[in-house]
Give the backbone structure.
Amino acid sequence: RVEQVMGRKLVSGKVAGVRISNPQRVIDQQSGYTKGDVASFYASICEWIMPHLSGRPVSLLRAPDGVGGQQFFQKHAERLAIPHIRILDRKLDPEHEPYMEVNNIRALVGAVQMGTMEFHGWGANSRNLDQPDRITLDLDPDPNLPWKSMIEATELVLAVLDELGMQSWLKTSGGRGIHIVIPLARYANWETIKEFSRAISAFMARQLPDRFTSKMGPKNRIGKIFIDYLRNQHGASTVVAYSVRARPGLPVSVPIAREELAELRGAGQWHVGNLEERLQGLQEDPWAGFHHRQRIRKEWWEQLEAKA
Ligand code: ATP
Ligand code: MN
Ligand code: MN
């Protein structure tokens, strides 16, 4: 069924059994893609996105008028009736409205029907909300930096992670930067994970202050890359692998293999129009082995905190 949807012009108004209203409405002027195209795209990459999306609380970036229009993040279902979406037990976090999960193709497409363009996920599983299962280092460049600096910076961070002995994987953000994702065993709390992420960010900034900063804010980042560790806290989310971005040209956040980094041409290299070709040409999943369960070792803290 997925193959039938792929590359087919939407005429019937239904994708994966979900009726799409206004399927011909253009939602990105640059590419000309319509709401129906986005729904079909998500249906076609359902198998790729689900491992990163299902089972964890999701924030939806809704942009009902498309790229350039008003956007808002939605963390709670509220009155939004997304068909087939899973509403989580409110006891998980009694101070908030219940969270939601997207676990199947109909919820995925149903969210698009309700104006969703981007899917953002927590760094924790819904069953273990207080025990994160990944760290995301969000490399945010000064927009004026050449792309080559972004690649070099990523290589430098990877060299440090390798030296420590941490396993990590890469994805394009679909925006300007790169996300380094470090899978974890579920055992530590958010406070520990945030501190550890901050320690990596601060270490890089200490070692290479001309290239990196661990301080938020555009003026701290002039000519540099901010290693944003703040994705790693309770309630924070990061765009999930294979999500579209609500930006001109509809780029996609795409997992890449290490060996692809040097040749990467930009954070928006893949988009709704060319991702299918990439996926069909892959020899193996660039994130094979991702579900590696590592724990933060005492020596890692010591090495990162040692004075240069
Ligand atoms: P880029 O490469 O352009 O930085 P990005 O997705 O990494 O793309 P950031 O601005 O660095 O964008 O944000 C990182 C993540 O933080 C986002 O993917 C999103 O999940 C989360 N985020 C950012 N702004 C908000 C917001 N206003 N509300 C909720 N989450 C947000
Ligand atoms: Mn970023
Ligand atoms: Mn950021």
User: Anything to note?
Assistant: The pocket of manganese (II) ion (ligand 2) is lined by residues 138, 140, 173, 177, 228 (CB under 6 Å). The chain has two domains: 2-122, 128-308. The mean pLDDT is 94.
